[in-house]
């Protein structure tokens, strides 16, 4: 999968919003926001940058088992609302 570039600004890459499950030493999980822009087929991981309030974003490489794309979360919330 190639990185997607912005049509109006070819120097800028487009990202998909997601959250990644992070576990601490006590095995408690929290969701951390991330922007994904590439799937690396060789290592079977998604690559992108963490959504942090920093000028320069920290890159990341994440397993798909712990990753939820924002559209998936919104779809799940809609399904829950419809069922109640």
Given the structure, what is the number of helices? 1
End-to-end gap: 39 Å
Shape: globular
Structural class designation: alpha+beta
Radius of gyration: 15 Å
> How many domain units?
1
Largest sheet: 5 strands, antiparallel
Number of strands: 5
Low-pLDDT ranges? none
Strand content: 35-45%
Mean pLDDT: 82
Strand order, main sheet: write it out: 4-3-2-1-5
Helix and strand run: EEEEEH
The helix fraction, in percent, is 10-25%
Overview in brief:
This protein has 84 residues and is of the alpha+beta class. The chain has one helix at 70-83; strands at 16-23, 29-40, 45-50, 59-63, 67-69.
Question: Notable features of this structure?
Answer:
single chain, 84 residues, alpha+beta, 5-stranded antiparallel beta sheet, 1 helix, 17% helix, 5 strands
């Amino acid at each position: 999968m190639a990185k997607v570039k912005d049509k109006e600004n070819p120097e800028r890459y487009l990202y998909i919003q997601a959250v990644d499950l992070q576990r601490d030493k006590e095995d408690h999980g929290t969701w951390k926001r991330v922007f994904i822009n590439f799937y690396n087929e060789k290592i079977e991981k998604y690559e992108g940058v963490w959504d942090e309030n920093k000028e320069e974003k920290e890159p990341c490489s994440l397993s798909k088992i712990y990753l939820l794309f924002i559209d998936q979360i919104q779809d799940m919330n809609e399904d829950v609302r419809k069922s109640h």
